[in-house]
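subagent[fold] <- orchestrator: predict structure for attached chain, return tokens only, no commentary.
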Amino acid sequence: MKKKHIRNLVIFSSLITLLFVTGYILKRKKKDIKIENNKIEYNSGTIYIGDKDYLDTIKSLGPNDVLVLDKRFDKDPNLKIIDSYKITNPVIREEIIDSLLMLESMEDTPWERSKVSLLREWYAHNILYDFSVETHRTTDVDLNNNDEKTYRIRKNIFK
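subagent[fold] -> orchestrator:
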């Protein structure tokens, strides 16, 4: 009788833990993004997006706030995340990329990048910055159309 009671208790506590963890994951995956003028509010902070003059007016940033220089109508359409090296948490980087892609889906611009390529490029810039490689170029990440396939790792180089 005691073994059955302990077994049921273990199963019950495992189910409660599973429900709690699943609920947390579902809550975490929920993207609460609010887009207003030149500001995107996402789960962890604010993205200020605009031209250089607008970005120069932003004086105070929170730890997960970013400035994005909007050059989506240039010859090589581009979104440049200023001081991108400061965002080291991959979950926050993904939230920012998701927010930028959501903004892009609402506007008709020539900027066109995949989520995977954006994340790879940002990750590569951060690694290079961490190793002090060309910090004048790796401080910010330029997410331009021409780099869509640049940061892809070829499988055949490992053969």
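orchestrator: received. Logging for downstream: The longest helix spans residues 2-29. The beta strands are 34-36, 39-42, 45-50, 66-71, 78-82, 141-144.
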